[in-house]
Amino acid sequence: MRRWTAAVAVGGALALGLTGCGLPAGVDGELTNSWQPIPEPSPFVPPAEVCHPGDFAETAYLSSYSPVDCTTPHRVETAHVGTFGAEAAEATAPPAQGSPEIRVAYAECDSATSEYVGADWRLGRLWVGVAVPSPAAWEGGARWFRCDVTEVTNVEDNGGTASRTASLRDVLAEPSPLHLTCYAVRNDDNGAIDTMPAEECDEPHNAEFAGVWQAPDIEYPTRDRDWNQFHTECRKVIGRYADVPLDGNLQFRTGVISLPGGAAEWAAGNRGVRCYLWLDERNVERSLKDAGTEGLPIQYE
User: Fold this and answer.
1) Residue 68 confidence (pLDDT)
2) Rounded to two decimals, what is the model's pTM?
3) What is the spatial distance between Cα 32 and Cα 27, in angstroms, rounded to a whole number?
């Protein structure tokens, strides 16, 4: 009896041992064939549609990256994040400002920012810049560029950056205080334009924003003959804005102020030139949009 009991006990232990070494349902015994490979570490890519408390910087360092909610005070907003193309990506350092790679990026930022704010961003008190990764981030594989937009206090007088507490998304889709309108140009002692502060169009003023001329890929104007081309093209913008004939008499109906961005912006690829009609010493108290020949008569003196 004891042997039988012992035999049964040993047999039970053996059965338990075999059960412990068995494979559960659905397990094939291969330890590695279903493991997913560990992904390669990827570089940080900043998101779009976020705001930043500091002023725009051409190089975006991760150490200073501290986005804030756009309802809190900020000076810069990222409208779009793009990726440099293959040729630029092969470089050992981020593209320099004014390089062909930056001009390609700027063109993408120009279009994406205009879509973001609801119209050509040059129609408002806005400025756009391209920010690139730091050299260390580039070495680590970062190939993005940031399209940053900021409100400025006055595009005509190189005004400073404004602090905002609201997003710029669709800000130009409807009439907005950011839209460029009318101005009271003031001349210096030599008759040249000194300042042109904004003015309500129903108040006395002598200048008005008419639109944007998209210049071809030409040199930044430095000589009178360069500026003459800019003024000629801006007069056409003014003529269409005021609904007057684009003929030889246009130059006798209105003066013109042609404002491209600075030389650095031009080198980056900004070819948009803001065009303003200018009545010099005359003042009006209405907008001259679609004013026709009565609103912009030929000035014989």
Assistant:
1) 96
2) 0.83
3) 12
